[in-house]
Specification:
Low-confidence stretches: none
Largest sheet: 4 strands, antiparallel
Strand order of the largest sheet: 2-3-1-4
Radius of gyration: 15 Å
Number of strands: 4
Structural class: alpha+beta
Mean pLDDT: 92
Shape: globular
CATH topology: Alpha-Beta Plaits
Number of domains: 1
Distance between the termini: 35 Å
Length: 137
């Protein structure tokens, strides 16, 4: 299994844990590959992982999410680790706001996402964490 894959089991567990209809933030921790690694048969010109994510994945995701309650709050470079596992590092942190978890799930479970969008994320990222956060307490 690809360690950066969004699985059905993870989506089901999150759906059980997150109250229905509640706005959420999704925290993305991103570590890019030096060179994007596409699976055989996926037609994409060579590029860096950062380019694959920013120039291919993000625009494709935005097109797919158009018209849905989604706001990109911020995406910034990670400057330095303060607390974490030895050797762990992240290139970027991003937070997106969704109207609810169902909106996020509806996007990432589409055939278009799986076929045309996710391959860019898989090629771009060496490591990835995705955490659902409450919008307010």
């Amino acid at each position: 299994m690809n360690p950066i894959e969004i699985t059905l089991q993870a989506l089901d567990a999150a759906e059980r844990a997150i109250p229905s209809g509640q706005p959420i933030y999704m925290l993305n921790l991103l570590r890019y590959r030096a060179q994007a690694r596409y699976e055989d048969g996926f037609d994409a010109a060579p590029c860096s992982g950062r380019e694959a994510f920013n120039e291919r994945y993000r625009p494709a995701f935005r097109r797919l999410a158009a018209g849905k309650p989604l706001v990109r709050v911020f995406s910034v470079p990670v400057l330095a680790p303060i607390v974490g596992s030895p050797g762990e590092h992240w290139d970027e942190a991003a937070i997106n706001e969704y109207g609810d978890f169902a909106t996020f799930r509806a996007i990432v479970e589409t055939e278009e996402y799986i076929r045309e969008v996710a391959p860019h994320r898989h090629a771009a990222l060496e490591d990835f964490r995705l955490l659902a956060l409450a919008k307010a307490m």
